[in-house]
């Protein structure tokens, strides 16, 4: 064991459905604009250009049924419901035809976004980190191992705030399906076991306020529920 000058931080992790063991998170990748209707609501004509990615720190994950304090610096915290792919086997330049062999399982996650800071960064040509990669910005529900489910190619993706549906879409609308997303991400970085990929959000993103109860799900995979707390 290496001798550290102070104890290393706890390993960030996500629950695994039907198991006491947890999935150790290594990195978090997120796909931008992977549903046409969401690309349009953000002011972009959807094109089948290669997808772009951004990242969040591994310790941005939080479990379902958590109260997340309203984050600092923002007046426009947005919800984005997304299917999350958990990588179980790494690789570089992965062939799309074999990409699904690298999946450990699937979960439902939220890509929480400080939309005002993201918008300012876009305008000024600055990095997105302050808009996207903040503390507790990646709630993730339990991962359903592929041993317990099929690779989903369709399924309703939905999010409700205080019981009212805000986001709705279907996995069959993904501009870049999971196999392509894994293959393309692995061209830029060597994927490793423990990496999570948030696959993009359908239309209907919007603002959250302290006290809001946020629930969402992907049919066939699971659900997630969080509450926004006071700042
Ligand atoms: Mn997103």
3D architecture notes:
Strands 4-3-15-8-9-12 form a six-stranded mixed sheet, covered by helices on one side. It has helices at 36-41, 115-124, 129-132, 178-188; strands at 13-15, 22-24, 28-31, 53-56, 61-62, 66-69, 77-79, 81-87, 103-110, 113-114, 138-139, 144-145, 156-161, 164-170, 196-198, 206-207, 213-218, 222-229. It is globular, with a radius of gyration of 17 Å. It has a single domain (13-229), classed as Fumarylacetoacetase-like, C-terminal domain (Fumarylacetoacetate hydrolase, domain 2, Alpha-Beta Complex), CATH 3.90.850.10. It contains four helices and 18 strands. The structure holds manganese (II) ion. Manganese (II) ion is lined by residues 30, 80, 82, 111, 198, 200-201.
């Amino acid at each position: 064991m290496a001798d550290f000058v102070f104890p290393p931080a706890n390993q960030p992790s996500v629950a695994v459905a039907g198991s006491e063991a947890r999935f150790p998170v290594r990195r978090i990748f997120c796909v931008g604009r992977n549903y046409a209707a969401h690309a349009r609501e953000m002011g972009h004509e959807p094109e089948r250009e290669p997808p772009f990615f951004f990242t969040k720190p591994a310790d941005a994950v939080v479990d379902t049924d958590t109260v997340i304090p309203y984050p600092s610096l923002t007046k426009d915290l947005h919800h984005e419901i997304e299917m999350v792919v958990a990588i179980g086997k790494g690789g570089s330049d992965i062939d799309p035809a074999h990409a699904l062999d690298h999946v450990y399982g699937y979960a439902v996650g939220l890509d929480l976004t400080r939309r005002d800071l993201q918008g300012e960064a876009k305008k000024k040509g600055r990095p997105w980190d302050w808009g996207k990669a903040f503390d507790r910005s990646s709630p993730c529900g339990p991962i359903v191992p592929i041993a317990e489910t099929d690779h989903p190619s369709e399924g309703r993706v939905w999010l409700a705030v205080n019981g009212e549906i805000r986001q709705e879409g279907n996995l069959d609308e993904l501009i870049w399906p999971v196999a392509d997303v894994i293959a393309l991400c692995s061209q830029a970085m060597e994927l490793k076991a423990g990496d999570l990929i948030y696959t993009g959000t359908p239309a209907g993103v919007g603002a959250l306020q302290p006290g809001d109860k946020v629930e969402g799900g992907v049919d066939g995979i699971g659900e997630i529920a969080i509450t926004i707390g006071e700042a």
